[in-house]
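tokens incoming
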């Protein structure tokens, strides 16, 4: 049985199909690149796998569990656009709060290790509001990684990151995948950016998988 199984999945917004009869089977423990131009359907497919939307027809399963209608994957790390952070808290305080509601909690020391991995000062008392876009993006990436979920989905993770930070991101993805067998789905409009770390590439266009 495939780890992720999407069957005849269609979703319309304002009567227009944003996902058009998607069929997709993904194996556990692999790194998948999801590529396509803006508006191709990448983000909507991510929302479908994450349970953030419900299909008009068809089904989506993650590890045998049907997703949608308020049901989400049991072990998921997710990076999507405009993740809300508590502006008046520091990066560490934001991550600690998110960690407190996770099933697989980690220690404060491990949270600080994650911050240092992405070259953020773990003792920085500044609030998130004072962080640059790149620094905020790193914190958003960390929240998706830190509790060791079985499935990690990243939508445009390289946004606002410089080349050095992108290399840290990719090195970390490979380490997590090799150490824990984590399944990754990474969406990007920049094909060259993610092809080298991916086991398989899925191309989307106009709400359909074309390759």
């Amino acid at each position: 049985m495939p780890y992720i199984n999407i069957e005849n999945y269609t979703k319309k917004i304002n009567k227009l199909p944003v996902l058009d009869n998607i069929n997709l089977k993904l194996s556990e423990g692999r790194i998948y690149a999801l590529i396509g131009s803006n508006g191709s359907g990448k983000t909507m497919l991510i929302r479908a796998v994450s349970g953030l939307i419900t299909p008009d027809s068809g089904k989506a399963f993650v590890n045998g569990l049907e997703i949608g209608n308020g049901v989400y994957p049991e072990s998921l790390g997710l990076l999507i656009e405009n993740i809300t952070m508590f502006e008046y808290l520091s990066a560490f305080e934001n991550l600690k709060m998110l960690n407190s509601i996770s099933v697989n909690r980690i220690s404060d020391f491990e949270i600080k290790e994650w911050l240092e991995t992405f070259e953020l000062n773990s003792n920085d008392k500044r609030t998130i509001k004072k962080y640059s876009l790149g620094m905020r993006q790193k914190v958003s990436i960390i929240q998706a990684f830190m509790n060791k979920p079985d499935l990690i989905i990243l939508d445009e993770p390289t946004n606002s990151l410089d080349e050095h930070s992108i290399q840290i991101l990719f090195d970390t993805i490979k380490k997590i995948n090799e150490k824990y067998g984590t399944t990754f789905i990474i969406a990007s409009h920049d094909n060259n950016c993610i092809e080298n770390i991916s086991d398989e590439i899925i191309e989307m266009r106009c709400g359909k998988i074309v390759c």
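note: The chain has six helices and ten strands.
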